[in-house]
Amino acid sequence: MRLLLLFVVVPAVELALLIEIGSVIGTANTFAIIVATGIAGSWLARTQGLSVWRRFQERLASGAMPGNELVDGLIVLISGALLLTPGVLTDVVGLLGLIPPSRHVIRNVVVHQLKDRIHDRID
Description:
Elements (H helix, E strand, L loop, with lengths): L1 H24 L1 H35 L5 H18 L3 H11 L1 H23 L1
Helix pairs in contact: 1-2, 2-3, 2-4, 3-4, 3-5
């Protein structure tokens, strides 16, 4: 079911959004938005990825376990991949994963879900 969502529903929604946006603002403007989000996203992915990497190294150097940094790194990686996927919806989700305040919220949700899964398997 998840694969159906990933490979059929998401691209169909993306296509519908692009067609709708293109009919409202025009093809050239729609294309400009896609290019602009790609440029902004690549810059954010690079800067945020380096920031996460620095924090990861600092935690290791201090002898602490870099748990949040590992989750942040995964979110930045997935967000960067989403930005490579053409479309508006994936760009919005990707950009949210690269902005620190929203990434913090995403990280808290992911960590909570992981803890619940671990707890369920232990019981």
